[in-house]
């Protein structure tokens, strides 16, 4: 049998956490059992549209339940400002640029565009440790058969592999929604409700074995539509009405998942992570709170996302952390919690963030984070961020003092600008060129100075 993570009973673990690190805690235990893992991924959920990040317009009591039971990370990033490459990054723990995955795949070259099968994904790794794996919802990788979720390590799959889907799919006439490798005849429920139903059913059937479940809602991504009873709750919000209704409905379905874990008695041995694949979109009513920009760029509003995680007895309840982390970190953190070791040949860019989540340290495991998407790019190094957003003038910002990226310091700190620009270029060359899109075959990008 593969070695399993050792964990204390929750009450004992809470007291031990005061005196020892998570690594030691895992050894000083009496009971041995496998953790379960649930990743809840929202689609285009803005930084400012959750209660645990301060929203008062859209109640999210169930997302807040996760934060109340664990930690809310205020400086969590994804590796791309749009869905496909962001997901390729967090599924693999690597900058997706390493195989040229800079932008969404699209329908062209279906057998070539996507995450290569020799790049290990988290669900594929967990299967080697005896986990039962499931995906409910959106995947958004390559279109070829070898890229499909049922060929990439998911034992069970209900959802779609595309950038977007209709929410009312009674006929499934375009064969978009699949159960495993077969299109379903149709889906009578609003799609977010259907994903909630399927996630609850997965837990019901697999609660007695170690499992990994990714629940990847496509809400609140377009097309913007929601059930009438949810729309009525927010008829006072104007252009944010539909978005609010979609988020509220998703939150209720998250509550169904949390309730099922509690009913089955496995909440205390399940790590739950909730985050968005990228920032919110203004056109659809999304808000990114104090952050500048929106989905599709490289200002903070595109790449800094709502993020919370809970694990009873290991992550202290009701805490907040400003430490910089990345969704890339979920891969190595999950590997370690599942009792595994990081293979250097994986060439991961993500880091084990359990010491951060548990409060053992406030130091970021990253010296810097890198972004490159079309003609936009950025580098964060400590509190400094150098950003080129499309055709705008490049900017240098101190995020500790200027979270909204309003005070451009590029002229005041020319040497810092030069050093960060050079570092960005070195990383860009090291991760490799885009494999498709406007900048195919290129690692260079323009920097526009005023």
UniProtKB/TrEMBL annotation:
GO terms for molecular function: arylsulfatase activity; metal ion binding. Residues 1-26 form the signal peptide. It holds the Pfam family Sulfatase. Residues 36-339 form the Sulfatase N-terminal domain. The keyword Calcium applies. The keyword Hydrolase applies. The conversion to 3-oxoalanine (also known as C-formylglycine, FGly), of a serine or cysteine residue in prokaryotes and of a cysteine residue in eukaryotes, is critical for catalytic activity. Transmembrane segments: none annotated. PANTHER family: ARYLSULFATASE FAMILY MEMBER, ENDO-4-O-SULFATASE. This is Sulfatase N-terminal domain-containing protein. It comes from Endozoicomonas montiporae. The lineage of its organism: Bacteria, Pseudomonadati, Pseudomonadota, Gammaproteobacteria, Oceanospirillales.
């Amino acid at each position: 049998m593969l070695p399993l993570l050792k964990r204390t009973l929750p009450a004992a673990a809470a007291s031990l956490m005061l005196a020892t690190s998570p690594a030691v805690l895992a050894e000083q235990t009496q009971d041995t059992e496998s953790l379960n893992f649930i990743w809840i991924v929202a689609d285009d959920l803005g930084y400012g549209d959750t209660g645990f990040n301060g929203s008062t317009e859209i109640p999210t009591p169930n997302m807040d339940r996760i934060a109340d039971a664990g930690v809310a990370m205020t400086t969590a990033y994804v590796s791309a400002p749009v869905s496909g490459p962001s997901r390729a990054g967090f599924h693999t723990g690597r900058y997706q640029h390493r195989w040229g995955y800079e932008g969404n795949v699209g329908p062209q070259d279906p057998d070539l565009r996507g995450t290569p099968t020799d790049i290990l994904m988290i669900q594929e790794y967990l299967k080697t440790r005896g986990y039962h794996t499931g995906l409910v919802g959106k995947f958004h990788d390559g279109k070829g058969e070898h890229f499909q979720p049922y060929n990439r390590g998911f034992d069970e799959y209900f959802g779609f592999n595309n950038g977007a889907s209709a929410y009312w799919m009674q006929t499934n006439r375009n064969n978009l929604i699949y159960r495993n490798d077969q299109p379903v005849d149709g889906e009578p429920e609003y799609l977010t409700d259907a994903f909630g139903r399927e996630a609850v059913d997965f837990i019901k059937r697999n609660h007695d074995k170690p499992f990994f479940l990714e629940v990847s809602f496509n809400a609140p991504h377009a097309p913007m539509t929601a059930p009438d009873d949810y729309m009525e709750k927010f008829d006072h919000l104007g252009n944010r009405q539909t978005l609010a209704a979609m988020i509220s409905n998703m939150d209720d379905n998250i509550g169904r998942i949390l309730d099922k874990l509690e009913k089955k008695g496995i909440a205390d041995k399940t790590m739950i992570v909730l985050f968005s694949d990228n920032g919110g979109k203004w056109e659809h009513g999304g808000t990114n709170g104090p952050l500048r920009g929106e989905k599709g760029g490289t200002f903070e509003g595109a790449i800094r996302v709502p993020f919370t995680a809970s694990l009873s007895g290991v992550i202290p309840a009701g805490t907040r952390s400003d430490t910089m982390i990345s969704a890339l970190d979920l891969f190595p953190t999950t590997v370690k919690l599942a009792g595994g070791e990081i293979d250097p040949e994986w060439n991961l860019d993500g880091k084990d963030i359990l010491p951060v989540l548990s409060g053992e340290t406030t130091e970021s495991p990253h010296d810097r984070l890198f972004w490159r998407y079309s003609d936009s790019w950025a580098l964060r190094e400590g509190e400094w961020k150098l950003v080129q957003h499309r055709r705008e003038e490049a900017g240098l910002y101190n995020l500790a003092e200027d979270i909204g990226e309003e005070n451009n310091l590029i002229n005041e700190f020319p040497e810092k600008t030069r050093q960060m620009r050079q570092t960005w270029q070195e990383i860009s060359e090291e991760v490799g060129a885009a494999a498709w899109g406007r900048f195919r075959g290129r690692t260079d990008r323009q920097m526009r100075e005023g």
